[in-house]
Every structure is written in C-alpha cells, then in structure tokens.
Design brief:
Elements (H helix, E strand, L loop, with lengths): L1 H21 L6 E3 L6 E3 H17 L4 E4 L12 E9 L1 H6 L5 E8 L2 E9 L4 E6 L2 E5 L2 E2 L13 E3 L1 H5 L5 H5 L5 E2 L4 H9 L6 E5 L1 H14 L1 E5 L11 E7 L3 H5 L4
Parallel strand pairs: 3-4, 10-11, 10-12
Antiparallel strand pairs: 1-2, 4-5, 5-6, 6-7, 7-8, 8-9, 12-14, 13-14
Helix pairs in contact: 1-2, 6-7
C-alpha cells in the first residue's frame, strides 16, 4: 500500500504540473448539462494522463472518473476515483481555486485520498493507515469549537434556498464561505478553516475527502444522515462526527 500511496502522490503532482503548463493555451470549453456545467479540453487531457499512468503501473486496477463516462463501482476490486479538475468554473474564470483529486478503494474500502490545490501547491494526502498531511504539515483530528466561533462552507444555491435548513445553521455561526469547488472546500474543513461543508456533488467530488476525513474525525453523509451511494449526485455534508448531532438539529 505504501508503494501505491507514494505513486499517487507523485502522479497527482505531475497532473498539477501538466495543468499549470497548459493553462496559458486557448481552452476549448464545452457545456455538459447546462451553461454553468462546463468541461474543457484540459479536464479531459489531464484525466487521460492520470488513467494512462495508472494503467501502466497497475494494469489490473479499475477507474471511475468524471469525464467521458469512465465508471466502475467502488465495491468491485481495486478502484481509482479521479477528478482531473475539480472546480472547472473557477479554473476557467479565476485560474485558481481548483484541485486535482484522487481516491483509492479496494472492494469498497477507502485506502487513501489526495486533494491537490494546484495553484497554491498544497497537497492534502492520507487516510486509511496513513496520517493526513498538507504538504509536510500533519493535520490533527477535529478539535471542538462552538458554532459562534466557526465558519461553514456551502453550495451557493443550497444556502440561498435554505435547503434542509443550511441557512438556519449558518445563523448560529460566524457566516458562510463559498469557494465553488468541493475539493478546496473540504480541504478547508480538514485544516480547520471551516467547521463543515454542504453541497450537491458526485462521487469523484467527495471520494478522497471521505477517506481522509474519517482519519481526522469527520464524516461525509447525505443530508438525511446516510452513507452516500458512490453512484449518483447527492446532497451531502462533510462534518465533524463530534458535532453531528448538534448540526442535525438544524439540518432537517
């Protein structure tokens, strides 16, 4: 497992370097389901790079990835879950606040996860048998703080429409931060800059944080408190286990 984890850390940084090197070129932007659901040629090229490297190193392993319909259930064998550019709108408009994400599962059990904040060059990696680090800084388990000394992160539409009481919860805190990407947001939770994160996302958006979060005392659940299905887009929360019951008093 150590060898695969080391391979993954090298690979995700290589993908980040590739993205940075190609960012200055003219991007080909396509709409997927609607005008704000975008994909670029660089999303696809970065994913192809990741898959090619994985298949060369581990030809018997399987892949679930965001682009081009690459799907394989996490319960079936050795599965790499990839998001080549999480936060594509941020990538297109801001050229920052986006991440590359990799998660590795064996027969449905998460072994390690990685979230790479590309432009800030910060790699969050670990989970399973591995401690979680942000580059060389070890992250520690959640340390309790009252709501009125915390910020939360949320999907902007879910907050605006008070879906499941997210806005009600936010009124107990110091406010809401919207970063526009699951990876960046959940890395802020794990590093203690946010108490929790609420969004409507796909398995490749949460698979890495699911593994790392468990190591640090966080749980990734649907808004009704169930384990996500790793098959479809769902409304989820990434919250400290210690604060779960208090949060669920508002998240209905």
């Amino acid at each position: 497992m150590e060898t695969k984890f080391t391979f993954a850390k090298t690979l995700i940084r290589e993908a980040g370097s590739f993205i940075r090197s190609e960012m200055t070129e003219n991007l080909k932007i396509e709409e997927k389901t609607r005008f704000d659901d975008l994909v670029t040629n660089l999303d696809k090229n970065a994913q192809e790079l990741l898959i090619a490297k994985i298949k060369t190193a581990y030809p018997e392993d399987n892949v679930m990835a965001e682009e081009n319909g690459v799907r394989h259930p996490i319960t079936d064998g050795h599965v790499w879950i990839l998001d080549p550019i999480d936060g594509t709108v941020n990538f297109i408009v801001q050229r920052e606040n986006f991440a590359v994400m990799i998660a590795y599962y064996e027969d449905g059990v998460g072994r390690f996860g990685l979230i790479y904040d590309v432009m800030n060059d910060v790699l969050y990696a670990g989970g399973g048998r591995f401690d979680v680090y942000a580059n060389d800084k070890k992250l520690f388990s959640y340390r309790d703080k009252p709501f009125n000394r915390c910020l939360i992160g949320a999907n902007s539409s879910m907050y605006a429409e008070n879906i499941h009481g997210i806005r009600d919860l936010s009124r107990q805190t110091l406010g809401v931060r919207v970063y526009g990407g699951a990876g960046i947001s959940m890395s802020h939770v794990m590093s203690g800059r946010l108490l929790a994160y609420f969004s409507y996302i796909q398995p490749w958006d949460y698979a890495a944080a699911f593994i790392m979060g468990e190591k640090l005392g966080y749980r990734l659940l649907t808004l009704d408190g169930q384990k996500p299905d790793f098959k479809s887009r769902q409304m989820v929360m990434f919250v400290p286990e210690q604060k779960l019951k208090a949060i669920q008093q508002f998240i209905k």
